Amino acid sequence: MRRVYPLEERCINCHLCEVACIVEHSKTKSPVSAFHVEGLRFNREDSRTVPDPAEALAAGVPKPLTRTIVQTAGYVSVSTNCRHCAEPDCVLACKNGSLYVNEDGRVLLHEDKCVGCWMCIMACRYGAITPNPTRRNVPAVKNNGINHHCDLCPERETPACVWVCPTKALVFEDRDVP
Amino acid sequence: MNYVIIGNSFAGLFATEAIRRTDPEGEIHIVSREPQHVYSRAMIHEMLAGVVQEPMVYLRDWDFYQKMRVHALLGRTATGIDPKAQVVTTDAGELPYDRLLIATGGKPFVPPINGLQQVQYHSFITLEDARKLKAACEGRRDAVVLGAGLIGLQCAEALRHVGMNVVVVEMADTVLPMALDAVASEIISRELAEEGIEVHTGDTLDLVISEDGHPTACKLRSGGRVPCDLIVIAVGVRPNIDLAKDAGVVTDRGIVVNERMETSAPNVYAAGDCAQGPEIITGMTMPIPVIPIASTQGMIAGYNMAGKRRAYRGGLSLNAMQFGGVQVVSYGFVKDERDGEVLRVEDPARKVYKKLIIKDGLITGAIFVKDIDRVGLFRHLIERRIDVTSFKEHLLSPEFGVAHLPAEVRKEMFTTPQ
Amino acid sequence: MNYYEEANGRVALGIRRPEPGDWHHGYAEFHVLRDDERCIRCLVCVRQCPYDCTFYDPHRHAVYNIDENCVNCRRCEFMCPTDAIEITRWGAGFRENDNWRHRTIRAIYKQADTGAVNLSGLGNDLEYVSYFDRIVLDASQVTNPSIDPLREPMEMRTFLGRKPERLGEDCEMHPNLQIEVPVIFAPMSFGAISFNFQKGLAMAAKEMGTYFNTGEGGLHPDLRAYADCAIVQVASGRFGVSLDYLAHSAACEIKIGQGAKPGIGGHLPGEKVTREVSRTRMIPEGSDALSPAPQHDIYSIEDLRLLIYAIKEATEYAKPVSVKIAAVHHVAAIASGIVRAGADIVVLDGFRGGTGAAPTIIRDHVGIPIEVALAQVDQRLREEGIRHQASLIAAGGIRSSADIIKGLALGADAFYIGTAAMMAVGCTACQQCHRGKCSWGITTNRPDLAPRLQPEVAAERLANLLRGWAHEIKEMLGLMGLNSIESLRGNRLKLRGVGLTQVELDALGIQQAGL
After folding, report:
1. pLDDT in tens, C250-276
2. What mean pLDDT, rounded, does chain C reach?
3. For strand B230-233 and strand B352-359, is the pairing parallel, antiparallel, or unpaired?
4. A83-149 has CATH 3.30.70.100 classification
5. How far is A51 from chain C (nearest CA, A)?
6. Across chain A, what does the average pLDDT equal?
7. Residue B177: is it exposed, middle or buried by C-beta count within 10 angstroms (0-12/13-18/19+)?
8. How far is A5 from chain B (nearest CA, A)?
9. C453 vs chain A: nearest CA distance in angstroms?
10. Nearest-CA residue of chain B relative to A84?
């Protein structure tokens, strides 16, 4: 099964993979609309809203709602995302069966079922899951959201992050051992 | 091959799927006292609170048993096991087996309390418990929940959500004494207080006062007295080992299993809340009644039952919960700080608290309150016994991530198929 | 400028106040315009800018620039996913004055600020005449039919080195370099350029059947696999020079001078001397690598002969030895002496040649154009009957296949390309090479910047450049009725001058167009 694998020596920490991921998963598929109109950012309804300055500083750069996460330490940077494991920790931890392994091997979410309990975040040893606050299936719970992780861009031949990377630091290939 | 599984929750479910994946032809029978389609006990508090619709509680689609070609004998109780004859007796006939999985989960422990047996009190384990409790809330006002563990507090929050006055009484000094340390417990206590839940720690019920079989008030050991017309007992769950014990299978606190989930009886396996399997930090066996462990143990048991030899590395205490919108995740032994180095980050204004206990370079306990970004990495560090000494100072920084791990660890995680 | 206030470790836009000692920053040359509609605050430009020019302000949730730091490298424009950035010149600048130009005024400000020598990267950018651009080529029409390169073979292969005195069965053969296309990658040292770029040059050279030159930085051990394509340089600092170094090469080159800074030694600023660079050059990390002006064991032409033969001995006479000089006055006489000293190849580097770092004043005012140097050297060597004893490589701002054709006709055997090679892999000629912050990963070894250029990508682009040029060269040869490089060498009759004085025409040895 083809998955996205990083080549960390080539990563230049530009985060274009995150931008492409956001745009691909937006409704409008246009970067300007996705960021400005759809407001695809954490804790922000519209990306132009002026936040409370102290909160803005404490929060640093607002985290974008991306399914691939560029992680950096010193000179090392690498874009990481869901490994679509054969025996996924998240599926084994999911409290109500919202996460499942699809026939093609991808690990997917029933978006209308997820209650935002975050057992999956606790379980995923790759840190590949983030909360998505733009959808709430249990609005009575404060800060509710749903699971958000890489789905290998089902509508594309090559995932958006792989396509956009300027140094080809992400590859989409099958490394399974038969 | 004839497979019989006693119990229809997470362990039984993942065992079924593992067996079917390995053995497409074998006969699978699931026996469960509860009549419902496979559901999540972790969802009953949200059902009680009325914040989710019922379909969200079930773990698989309605046609699951058909698709898996499983005989689901629901609403049928297993009454005995004969390991020599390899037969399970139920209240509606006998079931012979080639491989048996005991996945009976846990049963609530009810302590002896004066006056308790004179009234109708509630447990909070099954979907049926939740339905009964919800019905009982009609026309009642003052709930008392005994036990401030995860089940007790989730029940308390749900009762509060439907408008009951709620008092929680807990014997230990803090809420969630098994899962959290004192600091994290304090943060949760404040959330509960903000929700209007009254909590008494270091206390218990001395007497239940009743009238015509209904509670009217409770006397606390500390001397206080609270009005009460509804009682929930949630002091703890014990592994449900009766069937195994009666059959002569070796039990301790739970049904003792090895790394292949085999019990002392041939062809008999156990998994889930009823089992006592290997734990990775201590290397000993202990019951770990949490969903991810139950699921994994069930899956491993299923594979081994169907002939695919798999060894279970060992479990780890894992918890994820939220109260009042504050998330908490914990791993391992979060209170045992002896001989360990403790790293801490606290930002009370933002309700953020993070703590790690490191012994001989290995993380043995971890708590994360509010900031749970990528916490699963710590599960990896603990389970794979990765020495964190070389990057210790980065562990609790906000940007801590895979880039801080040693290159070989990161490469193994991200450049090979998982 | 005292612009910045550190707030929680982040740079925020504070008060701008002109400070003595920093006036040269007072007047920004460039202005970064950002279309606010298109800017999605993705912060790619913030992360990519190495010149402290682009920042994010969390208070306003907006990206802003400190324009006086912009060097017009265009990296942000290149990377922006919504094409929201345009770099322009800052308004009116100084009042129009052809004598006191913006660059002149800023140079004075900078020296008054620092008291130091102003440095630059790349080559002479002043408005001197380009003789290449005033030379045109012949084409066949009726009387001498052209040759079709798509249907007939074109001989692009040539050999660099000493040729025998006469042809015959028992003639004495000397070691030569065989090249499949008359373009070689110019000397650019590891330290001046990134390891990835040098590896790309080596890979492309191997792919295209040509060579690369190590420059005066030594040969990194990881590039030994490409030794057969390497011309190793022995310069005045003798960085990295050992028997082992000479052994891992196809040819050795003694560098007397280079077109960008004739008469002075090489310069690698300390900030560019990383650990790998220091190990390859055998010098301390972080220290400026200043090569001495002369080679201190070459004080006369006889000394040069000694060194040439010392190298030949050390390499068992198996490899050609090249001598590289800057094109200066009396270059013809100097070249003649070099050939007689035993050099198998003479490299002439014109005043447009590039560098990683040189004093701007020297880069822009010292040396002569390669076109006239080449013509004069070729002429003199022929007159003295020694043209066959050495091949000529021309360098110094070779920009296209047209320059190559014209250069061949003026007398060169092959060409070095430096700046053009960098442009093939993304260089935008911002002239900041000396600062070690190259946004494209070409002239820096900083670990956060170097990965921006991947060796495989570089190699493919460089090979593509050579392929494109080779095809154009074949077309231009064919249209002249020639089918081999060697038929064009020194063939001045194929060139004509346009807009040149008679003295210039004579110096180049070509006729006026129309005649």
Report:
1. 999 999 999 999 988 888 888 888 888
2. 91
3. unpaired
4. no
5. 7
6. 86
7. middle
8. 6
9. 8
10. B418
CA distance C408 to C414: 7
Q: For residue C493, what are the CA distances in angstroms to B413, C409, C504, C511?
A: 67, 8, 16, 8
Residues pairing with B114 in the sheet: B207
Q: What average pLDDT does range B366-376 have in this prediction? A: 93
Contacts of C42 in chain A (CB under 8 A): 15-16, 18-19, 31, 35, 64
Contact state of B376 with A127 under an 8 Å Cβ cutoff: yes
Residues in chain A within 8 Å Cβ distance of B377:
125-127
B383 vs A125: CA distance, rounded Å: 9
Contact C325, C348 (CB under 8 A): yes
- In a mutational test of the B interface, the residue from A55, A61, A122 whose CB has the highest number of chain B CBs within 10 Å is A122
- Chain A contact present for B374, CB below 8 A: yes
| Residue from C115, C188, C184 nearest C357 by CA | C188
Residue B266 CA to residue B261 CA, distance in Å, equals 11
The residue ranking higher by pLDDT, C72 or A53, is C72
Q: Which residues pair with B225 in a beta bridge?
A: B219
- Decide if C275 touches A, using CB distance below 8 A: no
Tokens of A177: 């051992």
Given a cut of 60, whether residue B357 has pLDDT beyond it is yes
End-to-end, the C-alpha distance of chain A in Å comes to 11
Question: What is the share, in percent, of chain C residues with pLDDT greater than 90?
Answer: 72
Alpha helix (H) residue ranges in B261-402: 291-305, 376-383
Give B197→chain A minimum CA distance, Å.
16
Neighbours of B387 (CB within 10 A): 15
Q: Which residue of B has its CA nearest to A119?
A: B320
> Does the pTM of the predicted model rise above 0.80?
yes
Q: Which CATH number fits domain C2-116: 3.30.70.20, 1.10.3660.10, 3.40.1010.10, 1.20.1560.10?
A: 3.30.70.20
Helix (H) or strand (E) holding B10: helix B10-22
- Strand ranges inside B55-155, DSSP E: 70-74, 78-82, 87-90, 93-96, 99-102, 106-108, 142-146
What's the CA angle centered on C274, arms C272 and C276, to 5 degrees? 130
List of residues 6+ apart from B296 with CB closer than 8 A: A92, B14, B312, B315
In this prediction the ipTM stands at 0.93
Cα B371 from Cα A59, distance rounded (Å): 12
Q: Could you tell me if C268 and C321 are in contact, meaning their C-beta atoms sit under 8 angstroms apart?
A: no
| DSSP assigned state of B315 | B
Chains C and A touch (3+ CB pairs under 8 A): yes
More confident residue, C280 or C180: C180
Which residue shows structure tokens 């006709």? C409
Q: How many CB atoms lie within 10 A of CB B117?
A: 10
> Which of C48, C58, C59 is facing A60, going by the closest CB pair?
C58
CA distance C456 to chain A (A): 10
**Hey, where are the domains in chain C?**
2-116, 131-145+178-486
Of B57, B322, B413, the CB nearest to A126: B413
Q: Is the distance from CB of A68 to CB of A161 less than 8 angstroms?
A: yes
Alpha helices by DSSP H, C295-414: 301-314, 331-340, 360-365, 370-383, 401-410
Could you tell me the fold of the domain covering C131-145+178-486?
A: TIM Barrel (3.20.20)
Name the token pair of A61: 């750069």
Q: Which residues of A touch C60 (CB under 8 A)?
A: 50
CA-nearest of C387, C365, C389 to C376 is: C387
The rounded distance, in Å, linking the Cα atoms of C294 and C104 is 30
In terms of CA atoms, which chain A residue is nearest residue B291? Answer: A93
Map out the domains of chain A as residue ranges: 83-149
Q: Do C82 and A31 lie within an 8 Å CB cutoff?
A: yes
Is the CB of residue C85 less than 8 Å from the CB of residue C36? Answer: no
